[in-house]
Amino acid sequence: MIKVREIDKPLILAMMTLVAIGFVMVYSTSYIMAMKRYGNEYFFVKKHLMFIALGFLLFFIAANVEYRLYQRWVYLIFSISLVSLLMLTFIHGIGNEVSGARRWIKLGPLTLQPSEPAKLAVIVYMAYYLAAKKDKLKKFSIGIIPPMIMSGLIIALILKEPDFGTAISLGAIVVILMFIAGVRLRHLFSMLIAVLPFLYLLVTRVDYRMKRVLTFLDPWRDSGGAGFQLVQSLIAFGAGGIWGVGLGEGKQKLFYLPEAHTDFILSVIGEELGLIGVSALIILYLIILISGIRISFKATDLFGQYLAIGITLLIVLQASVNMAVVLALLPTKGLTLPFISYGGTSLVVNMIGMGILLNIYKNREVEGGR
User: How far is CA 349 from CA 177, 214, 333, in A?
Assistant: First the structure.
């Protein structure tokens, strides 16, 4: 059982604060839509609370499971994620299709998104492989081919859903981990050059992706159509100013801003809590980043180091991309804001990741003799 002295307090306080803010903001952004659609203003926030409870349970379990055990289970974890994505993609009737994308599996009252645990599975595999092959990573056949094939399987299935944003962010984490582990830069560049034509085709040959890029370049050109969401997001930030209009007093969530409780929840935070509120969130994510890096440095084995960095990137990179999207600094991606947005599977997986981080920290504390 984990003890208080074995807890990285800044990390856990940052996570708990983000979860608490998320709970409040999910209600603030969803109660009107919930009342209109379901006749119950608590519809979304009650489901969100269920995922918070599940997340804390799995966080506690992960914090007390010896992280090195994942090295034994790595291929089982990877295989389960691979099979779930294969079933979602190719077996008709299993996937729950929303807006043309089959990303979810319906399990009773809950809807699960297999690509979220798959991201964690890829990170566990990469940490295991890079640690095991540390002395041979300079060879192209060792440092590039196996990680590219294994992570590529998961990324390709995520693209098939389609979920371009998740696939790209996961690919970025894989490349960063390979760089940190010591894979030759020229090999990484060769891999990226080989992948770029496929990325170009994935964007230019799919109408809605190309439209997102064009909208990103000038959202005001079609502010009532393709650019509507980005324009409304920017209006929300402008209305909030420094101090915000007050919690619950925002207007953009009143059916002006699509996905106000999921992908674009930060826009409502910017409107209601202003620059101060958004800055507070950024500070909390920075605490997670700094704590994750510190835990990685304190880990006593390479697997723990790479696993800690991978999990930290999983959370912080997604938060950065989400913030960039709602501020019109990147094309829309469909990524939630970690610990804040309504989106149960993402919340639970991120909390499991935090539990693993805490276990890495716990083991370092014990083995350091402090």
Answer: 19, 33, 19
pTM of the model: 0.93
CA torsion 233-234-235-238 (nearest 10°) is 130
The pLDDT tens digits of the residues spanning 68-113 come to 999 999 999 999 999 999 988 887 767 666 655 667 777 666 678 8
pLDDT higher than 50, residue 3: yes
What are the structural domain ranges in the chain?
Answer: 4-367
